[in-house]
Amino acid sequence: MSVVDPILRLRGISKKFGEIVVAADLSTDLLPGQALGIVGPNGAGKSTLFSMISGDLRPDTGVVELDGVDLTGRRAHERTRAGIGRTFQIPRPFEKMTVFENVLVFATVGGGLGRDAAFRFAAETLDRAGLGAHANEAAGALSLLARKRLEVARALATDPKVLLLDEVAGGLTDPEVAELVELIRSVNAEGLAIIWIEHVVHALTATVDRLACLAGGRMVADGNPQDVLVDPIVRELYLGQAVMAEEDLA
Ligand SMILES: Nc1ncnc2c1ncn2[C@@H]1O[C@H](COP(=O)(O)OP(=O)(O)OP(=O)(O)O)[C@@H](O)[C@H]1O
Ligand SMILES: [Mg+2]
C-alpha cells in the first residue's frame, strides 16, 4: 500500500488576538485533489486560518508546508508563487481595470509568467471561470455572481497547487450558487485540491468529500460531510447559530 503525501500540511498552528484564541495548536493535512469544506461560527477564525496559510498573517507558532516545501517564514507573494491561491471574503478586484486585466495581473505577478504566456493563460482562465464574455468590461461593473467568478479566476490565474475559497457563495441566489458550485466542482475534478470556507452548507455538500468544523481554534469535527453535519457539537455550534440567525431575520 502506498501512502499519499499531503499537498498541504499544517502543524501546530496557534494564534491569539489578545485573549481571543483563533487557532489552538491546529494540525491537519490536505491530500492531493481533495476538496475540504470548513464550516464554523462567525468569528471562529476560519478566514484567519486562510491568512496564516497564504502568508497574509503570521501565526504565533506552527508550520505550513506545501507539496513538501516549508513555507513558514515566507511572505505572501512568495507563497502565491509556490502555489497557494486564495480568494478573499470581501472581493477586491481592481474596479477600474477590465476583467481580463485583473486576471492578467495575477497571471503575471502572482503566477510569474512572461507577457505572452500570461496573456494566453489569462484568456484560458477567463474561459474556464465562465467570464470570457465579460473580458473587456470594467471589473467594478460586474454582477455579484460575475464578481465571485472573477475572484476565483484571479486565484486560478496564479496556477495554484491548492485553492483556498473564502465564502464565495455568500449573497448569491440558489441558481447562482449552483453555477458557482459547477465551476468549483470542475476545477476540483481537474485535480486541484481545494479548501472551501462557506456558510452556504448545501454548496459545500454538493462539492466537498471532507468537511471540518472550526470552533475555538480547533477542528471540533472532521470527516465525511454527512457525519459531520449530524455531529452534536457541530449542530449546537453551527446549525444552532444558523437557526438563530433565521429567527433574527423573521
Ligand atoms: N487582524 C485582526 N486583529 C484583531 N482581531 C482580529 C483580526 N482579524 C480577525 N480578528 C478577530 O479574530 C476572530 C476570528 O476572525 P475571522 O475573520 O477569522 O473569523 P471567521 O471564522 O472567518 O468568521 P466569519 O464566518 O464571520 O467570516 C474574530 O473575533 C475577529 O474579530
Ligand atoms: Mg471569515
UniProtKB/TrEMBL annotation:
Pfam families tied to this protein: ABC_tran (PF00005)
Any one of the GO CC terms: plasma membrane
ABC transporter domain mapped to chain residues: 8-241
Molecular function as annotated in GO: ATP binding; ATP hydrolysis activity; L-isoleucine transmembrane transporter activity; L-phenylalanine transmembrane transporter activity; L-valine transmembrane transporter activity
Cross-referenced InterPro entries: AAA+_ATPase, ABC_AA/LPS_Transport, ABC_transporter-like_ATP-bd, P-loop_NTPase
GO biological process: D-alanine transmembrane transport; L-alanine transport; L-isoleucine import across plasma membrane; L-valine import across plasma membrane
Keywords: ATP-binding, Nucleotide-binding, Plasmid, Transport
CDD domains: ABC_Mj1267_LivG_branched (cd03219)
Protein name: ABC transporter ATP-binding protein
Organism: Paenarthrobacter ureafaciens
